[in-house]
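This part of the workshop introduces the protein records we will be handling. A record pairs a protein's sequence with a compact description of its fold. As an example, a complete record with its sequence and its structure tokens follows.

_____
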Amino acid sequence: MPHTTLVTTDLLAQHLGDPAWVVIDCRHELAEPARGRADYAAGHVPGARFLHLDEDLSAPKTGRTGRHPLPDPAALRATLGRAGVTAGGQVVAYDDQGGMVASRLWWLLRWMGHEAVAVLDGGWSAWKAEGRPLTRDVPPPSSATFGGAPRGGTVDAAWVLSRLGDPRTTVLDARAPGRFRGEGETIDPVGGRIPGARNRFWKDNLGPDGRFKAPGALAAELAAAAGGAPPDQVVHVCGSGVSACHNLLALEVAGLPGGRLYPGSWSEWCSDPSRPVERGEPKG
């Protein structure tokens, strides 16, 4: 049976060296993009390959498409093939930020039609704290062929703009509450949010131990955050289409699939001054 949401450190440890399992290190620091690769070189899960958020899991920025545009499908297929991903393989992604970047890879693989992908619950922090095996050995690029193709699940800025105020569409923003309110913005040139959006900070999906909360708790909290809207009427956004994937993963953990992603998110939305902006506490 494929693992499609989360795997434990125990389960991953049991499959180290399993040729049917592919492990991907997704560590990344937004303010220091070279750090993830350096951390990987200093030590990683045995057999893991490294994929960079900016270089491998995103397309080049254009100034109009947000900070982390979706990668070109052909380029992503080639990247995943070099990482050893095949049609029947189990992929496990991890990072050191509670799964925030690993969930981007999780979502991308699901977008490309690959179901057998999961995030390591607790991530690198749990793996290292438990004294699990580490290595500096870097596996060579794989000659595998990945043949997936995009299967939907996204909306664009025009779609969101056309549905502002529509009660059948709920925008759920994964950013920290301060950024959601437009306060203390340090990443994007404009502070604020898409008008009418609701807030579910992605870190609220995690318990004090850095692992995902229980499915029942996630289901109740995410439903409340979305104002009771059914998952297929919720569009997930964040700063650049990365942490929103954490909320989408949490929904899957909770047994509530069907949400859609606006990949450009706030960094794309605010690049066009003609698009409306809302700030402060939400009304109502």
Observations:
- Residues 6-129 form a domain with the Oxidized Rhodanese; domain 1 fold (CATH 3.40.250.10).
